[in-house]
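so i finally got all the pieces together for this one. its two components total, 466 residues if u count the protein bits. some of the lines might not be protein, just check the labels. i wanna see the whole assembly predicted at once instead of chain by chain like last time, that was a mess tbh
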Amino acid sequence: MSVSWISPRSVAGRILLALGLSLFLGGVAGYLLGVKTVTTMSGSLELTPNSALVVSTYTLTSRGVVTVEAWNASEVYYVSGIRGDPRSLLKGLQTFNISVGNEDFKTDLRLGVVYGTTTAQASGKLLSVLPQVSTMLSFKIIQVKPVSPDHYIVRQNLTVNEALLVFIVGQNVTYKYTYQVGEHHIIDPEKISALGAVLSASSLLFLPVTGRSRGRG
Amino acid sequence: MKLPRSVVLAYLDFSDSLRLGLFDAVIFIFTFVGVLLSYLEYYGSSASLAMSILSPTLLATALYLALRSSAGIAHMAGEGVLDIYLTYPLSRPVIALVILISRVIVPSLIIIGLPALAASIVYYPLISAETLKFLEMFGAFLVQATFYGVSFSVIALLSKRGGTASILSLLYYFTYNILELILSNLSATYESITYKISRAMSFYLVAYQHVNPPSIVPPPSLWEALLVPGLTLVLGALFVLHFSRWYEP
């Protein structure tokens, strides 16, 4: 009995089948369970006077770049240099008579980050209170300059266990949030090629399956 | 084209050493695990990727070599298949080398190589940037697997019984690893001799610290880098010598 070296029964064919199946199934499992490289969220919110939309990010196991874009905003501030979960800071704002609305946070372990939105409302003008809070809690609050009228972009690199809070003030604001696991992460996510794996798997599976047996066997 | 007799013998031996069943299950499971591990975490360097993917594969290779290769050699010796091999017009050292290649080196190369190949497909931009480092790690794991395989082959040749050879090989493997663990735990500092011996017993760890030098651990010295490859060569020579001089069918 002799078989083509690439038939399913030959060693080479069996190896190619194992490699192809592993890449295919591993790729599917990795897509469903594996690490993610980017997440986005967006929305619009009608804000009452003296309130702000707060977009928060807290990196757990990844490093990356947060980009928050805001439209129809009158002012945008961000607070950086915070270590730890920003939700405890938001709770702490209540001592300064700033009430925090419903929190809509998502913990994404595949991305290694906690992100979400909430609202903050002060009894007086919110932005006059924030500088006092920042001085007392020793973090920096920075005002963002608009890139065009009513359009603001905040882009910050975050390391592991670092938080960023973006305060968007306006009446009917629209925002877009992106967290990209970037070049400041352990590696550049571009170094993972899911497409390459799927293409290789397909071709590897194709070879032994189409390899024809020869001879009497 | 006429193939050399040694290649023909190796080809015949492959039909047993790589026969359908356990071999396919092992290569599929551990290649799948390799691909999955590639996706479950980010890896900053090809060396850390290789460590993560190939460490479980090394265990699988050792178990395969103990249960299939070692038992296979002992079975051949016990059932008289080696006697048939000895009728081939080949010298005994060549037959011994063919057996080592067919039973140890090629299965190890395939079982360790496939997950490495799959991981390098998933992570090809990283691997292509650090090909030599990845190959160094792959080579180190292959040497470690060969070391286990050659040790098991010597045990098999001496025991001549499949079941006994498997049990003794597994016992050898776990004793070796427990000894390494004990030596590592006994070490008060990274400079202590017990730590250095335990590190030298894992050739892939020496290679990893060569590729990715840690800040607090002293770099491996030359004797540490030569311990496992040296032992592999000594045991390989012992296998060939025993088969050539003292093996009685």
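Residues 183-192, 212-217 of chain A have pLDDT under 50 and may be disordered.
DSSP finds four helices and nine strands in chain A.
anyway lmk what u think
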